[in-house]
Design goal:
Layout: H1 2-19, E1 22-29, E2 32-40, H2 46-57, E3 63-66, E4 71-77, H3 80-83, E5 88-97, E6 100-108, H4 120-219
Antiparallel strand pairs: 1-2, 2-6, 3-4, 4-5, 5-6
Length: about 220
């Protein structure tokens, strides 16, 4: 059990380190081209990433999916570490580029979009938000992996029980077969003795037949 726990702990730490790659770049979104924070999402599906972001973003405000733009929009998000008492708008999209997935997040501060050049402290706080999301999705992925591993374990345990049951059935069949063999062997012994007796009786009967023929010949 300790070994399994250690493996999952190491897997979680590795997943977190993989998620901890944040960049920034000008990217196109629903209302123009603006600076976005970009988090690489290794080894996760787009569906899982979007589901987790919607759940995560709700902590900051009401979040809706804008199907037309393939974006999640959080209106007037409450993030004091970035915009104090003033609300800000969050735009997010999970992008697929080849085999890789990326979370792109735009922080609209009200006329300007967050960047490291504009305010490094606010930018670092935004990085923390994305890193926390990376931790959340890493945990969720491992939780799903664990769930699947437990299901597979359950299937294997069930299969083992079936094999054990079949083994008992086969052993019972062997016991029955052995009993039949012993019974058949006894019948073979009886058959051999009966053949010997019958062979003797046949010899005696042949002698009787010959004697009767001889007697008939004497009368001719």
């Amino acid at each position: 059990m300790k070994k399994i726990t250690l493996i999952f702990t190491l897997t979680l730490l590795l997943s977190i380190s993989l998620f901890a790659q944040i960049q920034e770049a000008e990217r196109s979104m629903s209302i123009g081209v603006h600076n976005a924070l970009i988090l690489e999402l290794p080894d996760v599906t787009k569906k899982l990433a979007e589901k987790q972001w919607k759940k995560y973003a709700k902590e900051y405000g009401k979040t809706k999916f804008q199907r037309k733009h393939d974006e999640y929009f959080t209106n007037n998000a409450d993030i004091p570490s970035i915009n104090g008492d003033n609300g800000l708008d969050l735009y997010a999209r999970v992008s697929e580029e080849g085999d890789k997935k990326y979370l792109l997040v735009w922080f609209d501060l009200g006329g300007a979009y967050l960047s490291s050049a504009g305010d490094i402290d606010k930018f670092k706080n935004a990085e923390k938000i994305l890193l926390e999301f990376g931790l959340q999705i890493a945990k969720e992925k491992i939780r799903l992996d664990l769930k699947e591993a437990e299901k597979e374990l359950k299937r294997k345990v069930s299969h083992l029980k079936k094999l054990e049951k079949n083994k008992k059935s086969y052993e019972r069949e062997i016991e029955i077969a052995k009993a039949k063999i012993v019974k058949a062997e006894g019948k073979i012994e009886e058959n051999i003795k009966e053949q010997e007796t019958t062979t003797q009786e046949i010899g005696q009967q042949k002698e009787l037949v010959q004697e009767t023929k001889d007697r008939l010949s004497e009368l001719d």
